[in-house]
Amino acid sequence: MSRSKLIAEEHPVEKVYLHFDKPYYSVADTMFFKAYLTFEQNIPSPLSKIVYVDIMNSRDSLVKSLKLPVTNSSAYGSLELDMVNFKQGNYYVRAYTVWMFNSSPNYFFTKTITIGEAIDKKLITHLSYNSSQNDKTQTIDAQIQYKSIDKAILANKPVSWSLTSNYEVVGKGKGVTDQNGVLKISITPRKNQIVSKGDLVTELNMGNQEVLNSSFVLKPKPASTDIQFFPEGGELVRGIPTQIAYKAINQDGLGIDLKGTITDNEGNQITTFNSAHLGMGSFYLNAEAGKTYKANITFNNGTKKVVDLPKAVETGITVQASTINPQQITFKIVASDTYFQQNQGKSVYLVAQNAGQVYYAAHSKILTQVTAAKIPTDKFPSGIIQLTLFSATGEPISERLVFVLHKNAMNLTLKTDLPAYKTRQKVRMTVSAKDSLQRLVGNFSLSVTDQQKVPVDETTETTILSSLLLTSDLQGFVERPNYYFVKTDEKKRAELDILMLTQGYRRFSYKEIMAGRFPANTFLPEQGISVTGILRDRTGMPVRKGALRLTSPGRTLSAETLTTNSGLFAFPNLVFEDGAELLINAKYNAAGSNMMIMLDNPPQPEVTSNPNLATEVVNIDSTLSAYLDNSKKQYNNLRTLKEVKITGATVKKPSHADYTALTGLSMQPDHQIDGDRFTGCNDMLMCLKTLAMGLTFDVDKFFITRDYMQGNKSTPVQVFINGNAVDAINLSSVLPSDVESVEIFLKDQLGLVFKNYNCNGVLVVNTKKTPKSNMTLADLKKMMPQSNMLKFSPQGYTKTREFYAPKYLTQTSSYTGNDLRSTIYWNPKIVTNAAGDTILEFYNADGKGTYRAVIEGVDANGNVGRYVYRYTVK
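^ that's the sequence the OP posted. Answer follows.
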């Protein structure tokens, strides 16, 4: 087991969890959050000192990326949801550290965040749709109900609509809303195009030349159901009574309930079963020799299916476990007759681990067919425990996951000085964190919201418990993760056990470890912002012991370094804000005018689509209506400000449409990278290798990734710089700071450009337009960037806003307007100590009803805590 120990020591698993002040937001809000970094046993992680938080929109584009400094294993941040970058829709947030790049991005923290729009809204809509399809054709039937902003039905209004998929219009039409304000649309996409993701845009004519637009993202899937069966221990062995768990899902990836029977190949009914929770359940089966088994299923939507159960193996040994008693794991090692006769007296080993750390190991000899034992759960931390049975030769032969949840590892509570308050009255709230013996030293964050304005379904929330203990160690989507942690009882523990049987996924496989194949540590934990690169002379040779100086405007930052023998340099542990322009200078060397400074590109994970698609909200208007009604009142004054916009003549930005050779391409590229993405980039070609979405670079050419993966390596992408066709290698001659935009075309509807240049895909670099001037050559030379000096703006630390909470010294205080806050109080900096309770003070807003306070956090020993407290405002 020393190899498993190696994994824990050399590849400790770092996790990130984000606690947000609210589960959803509206445009113009500020999102507040705190990041917790933990590693083994959820102890606060000492590894990384920088955490990244990215927010992506439903078109899988990166909208904002934040870089936050970590102190005491946590970081706090804020993001203003401005009206330029954010529109109504489903976004998703991911959080990670550079150390986490060493394992799969499936273990980044991810969460869907829905953002509504209240300021510019003129319509409230409600969409429902379904689709039916075969190989060639698809029909999408949609209905949209329209109401005015005052929730009055808009009947008998003409509407025109169009559906766009992959930048092509695949259907359009006109209609009129009925007396309930409902428009019915039936779309049959033409040209045998099956739409998997489309944008539906509708224009409703109000009369008086007022046309109101609405847009919807459609992700049609044909109605389908799928079911999988999972024998306990990994295999169904003949002659061993085995628990078989199952999980059924619908087309959206959500659980669908069912009932069914198991029959053998002679048609005898063996057993019946009914799903217990979200399409999951289990039954027992003793597979007999010479028999095969089928499951006959009726899903609760009426569809029926007959599925073969996994084939039984003739002989084997398996591990079975039960956690009915939360104080102990009861396990059995069961061998079939033949296995027992062939292996009697041989050794087996049972190992139990969590996140690479072994907490229990036992050696046993096969002396009877069934070996049973108990392990007290206090040997383990809370979370997923992997029980693995090894043969005498160290081969893993059977595996079972169980979940351990310690009830009072952390007794975290909140209480207020009164059970009920008046509006704007001061609240004194006490935070107490203890274990069974003493007060705990821990780090916490607290959010208090007005529950009337921010209603929430606790079972679907992402919480510190569901994230750190459950979903961060499972791959794939877990539906309603917090359900198992709210009022956990025997029934929920049993359902959690079935989740372990069906979604048991390990971070690493013992087969790889036993073969000595360890995950590679390509990245080290970041200790701060560092700027690294190489210094070369004009001939391209690295300069050894070259002197470099880094400064920032105003000299707030100044650092010096010498290059190594191979010309490499590093400025470690820099502190600067995002947007700062830095300057590196090599002119202090002998022959200093002949130097070239090349920067390394910081690693960036690629942008992926939302792994939790099933949690996206289709109808944001109705789902968030209580919240958006409040936002509308709150941001009333913003609308009046918006209407006083003074618009000058818009300057047309350079694009491919400026060049006759490229006018055949679609107006809209498949991907566009704006010039500001290349700040801190030294070599255009190097940067585009990582930033060009949908393209792969091989030797000296780009290819479309999809075709390249299918073996088409003969037709490359054609590169254009300002309309001139060039080889990809010429991209290195473009100055990144001169780039206005890069456009990527994966298709060419008219086929003209692809044919003329014998290419598959086009990459266009547009440089900024320079104003004409009467400059002399000498003036021009002065302006040319010197290669021995480099100006660049790397990603610095994101500035974080403080949460503003007003103080009302008297009930009729000077604040005259309505206090419409939905988040009443947010404090990410609560630290408890061994001395006693922590007291917090804040003031209520004008909302009446129930206020909900949620505190989350981790103590120094890795105990994870969460507590929800409610009080009344009258």
